[in-house]
Amino acid sequence: MSEAYHHRVRSARRNGRRQRGAYTIVVVAVLGIITLVAVRTITVTTVDSIRLTNNTHASTEAFYAAEAAIAQGAVWLDGNAATDALWVSDRVTGTSLAFAQSSGASTVSRSYAVEFGFELNAADTTQIKIYGTASNGVGNSATVTQWYVKKGLINPTALDAPLTVAQCIDDVTGNPSVSVANPGEDTTIVSANNCANLALDIDASGSPNNRRYRNLNKNTNEQIVDDPSLDGSDIWNSIFTTSRAAIEAAATNDAVSNIYWIDSSNYASLSQGGKVWGSADSPVLIVVDDCHSVGSSLFLGNNVVWGLVFVESDASNFGQGTCDMNGLGAVDVNGSLIVNGDMSDLNANTAIDSAALSGVDVTGFGGITIYAVPGTWSDMEID
Amino acid sequence: MKNKECGLSLTELMVSIVVGAFVSLAATTFYVTTVGAGKSLFDSVRSSEQVNSILDTIARDMRRAGYRGEPTTLATYLVSTQGSSGVAGDEGDFPAVEVTNNGNADCVVYTFVTGYQCQSGDDANFSACASSGIGADVNLHHRFGFRLSANGVMEAVAEIHPTAYDLATSGRDSSCASSDGTWQPVTIASEMFVDQFDVSVVDETVFNADTGCAFDTDCDGDGADDHSNTAECGDTLSCRIERLYAITMCAYPETTDNQCVAAADGSQPDGQVLAEILVTPRNDVLIARVYP
User: Fold this and answer.
1) Is residue A247 packed enough to be buried (19+ CB in 10 Å), middle (13-18) or exposed (0-12)?
2) What is the torsional sign of CA B7, B8, B13, B16?
């Protein structure tokens, strides 16, 4: 065969191979494009889904971090509330928070800067709003607010009168005195529901005017108040802002808390005479629980108390029972004496001067606590 | 003859066509399957996003539920915001969260104070707008809520609370029983059938009241009813309630009812979107009661 024939055959074979090659390439290319489109569809959907989940996750994290900021603000305020000077508008950087998230074998940590601040209510300065803000620096942030009220352990009115008795006063003898700063102020608040003679059953021997009752004088009726809110039952809640258990738990029975919880177990060691309890600037809170179990007298003689003394007449039946005050000789109470029940035998030369008269710092009782006002939590900025 | 050798034989051509057909068939099947799977995934994501966006909205709103606005003087603030009638469970004029059942599913409405700009005519409806004037920004109790209609569509409402305005004047009923068009659909009926919407209280803690916010009638423990003796019982009590709510939604990306109910063997059809969230409103309910 000629050389020209072989050339044509080679050429044809080459052409044939090229045609088959193009066919394969086209098929592969089409398949590749289809695969790419399919994979792209899946990837876009999945990535969108992951992105949505991540955004939701991050905004939730920022929200919880902002709530943590409020909690930090409340703790900061509680710890710095010893003086009213700190009860002011301010902004404080808190402890930043980090959330760890597992991602395969590694752990990713996202950090949120935390800040809290305060806004005082000008109309009622017992109230303060705490702002909590958290931000992770890449667009996720949240702010929440909550109003708080500062509250002492005792109600402010607990110190208005130097002597408050839940039920009646009986057998006042000797030379006790109950005094206030200004003439006309209430000296003694009693429940007159079940008591004769405006709750006072003063020993009939001798004229009350001749005794040194000062303002505890049944002829000076306007200063002995029959308080209608005293219904003859337990008056704890009108004196204290918190429960018995909370006060007992807070009592350290020393100058650390200045809260004393006296019962039969520690009566002998704590209540011996010749002692000065607290001072005008640092008053004490003494709960005697109860009068029956600790003996007939609250304190042996010559004690001086700066602050508030609350006596349970009968700890097994709050607000009832009779506390015998006999033996309260030469005891000075600068502040307030409160008997949760009947009081009998107030005698000798007991002296009770009101907080205003003796200059007791009425804000100094057991520090100040704060609590959240219900219905004031918000994560919105509204006018 | 020489030219025939340059092309493909019939056998070669037929084999190529058969092989090509198989390859094309495989490729087409792969493409159709992939696109179908992608659409299925997209539908599923769209359904779950519709469910999740509703649950997310409820979660954020219910956290705010019970927000009463900025307090001025605390004592008057508390008196004006707490429930105060003698009826058990009364939570005042603006209950934070109310759940009712409309036969086949639950309806939840919740209330909090938020800003509102007084519009023309509002001065006749809202005392706040009457005193502040048209265009002023005031804070009013609003009511928001979600319910499930009988045809599997979620509906939402966002209105000023009916206690804060005159319903007869506005003509817009935001209660769960409303059928005047105030509630608007928020899911698309042709894309998703919502089968279940349940709201329930899973935990409740009552503070400041030993008796579960109920009056104790035997105060001295002698077995007799003492409630008439205020010296022993007192005639008022106050308490604070913290609640934990669970909200469950179940839906299908089809339009068939009742698929969320499991079959007798426990199996359920594919494509179910089931989500549950737990929410605690940050604003506790306040109740002050007077003995009836």
Assistant:
1) buried
2) negative
Q: What is the pLDDT of residues A55-113, one digit of tens each?
A: 777 778 888 899 999 888 888 876 664 444 444 445 666 777 777 766 666 666 778 88
- CB < 8 Å to A233, chain B: 231-232, 234
pLDDT tens column, B162-220: 877 655 556 678 889 888 888 999 998 888 889 889 999 999 887 754 445 666 666 66
- Closest by Cβ to B231, choosing from A9, A23, A193: A193
Q: Considering only CB atoms, which chain A residues are within 8 Å of B56?
A: 56
| Residues of chain A with C-beta less than 8 angstroms from the C-beta of B141 | none
CA triplet A62, A63, A69: central angle to 5 degrees?
90
- Which pLDDT does position A240 carry in this prediction? 84
Domains in chain B: boundaries: 41-290
B234–A379 C-beta distance less than 8 A:
no
How many angstroms separate the CA atoms of A217 and A205, rounded? 14
- Please indicate whether, in this complex, the C-beta atoms of A38 and B16 are within 8 angstroms of each other: no
Q: How many angstroms separate the Cα of A155 from the Cα of each of A50, A308, A363, B11?
A: 55, 12, 10, 107
The closest CB to that of B6, out of A12, A373, A378, belongs to A12
- Please count the residue pairs, one from chain A and one from chain B, whose beta carbons lie less than 8 angstroms apart: 113
Report percent pLDDT > 70 for chain B: 76
pTM of the model: 0.65
Return the closest-CA partner of residue A347 out of A204, A173, A165.
A173
**Which chain A positions have a beta carbon within 8 Å of B279's beta carbon?**
none
Cross-chain residue pair B231–A233, CB shorter than 8 Å:
yes
Residue A28 sits at the chain B interface (C-beta within 8 Å): no
Specify the 3-state DSSP secondary structure of A223.
helix
User: Closest approach of chain B CAs to the CA of A235, in angstroms?
Assistant: 11
Taking alpha carbons only, the member of A90, A94, A91 closest to residue A66 is A94
pLDDT at residue B278, rounded to an integer = 93
Pairwise CA distance, residues A344 & A170, whole Å: 5
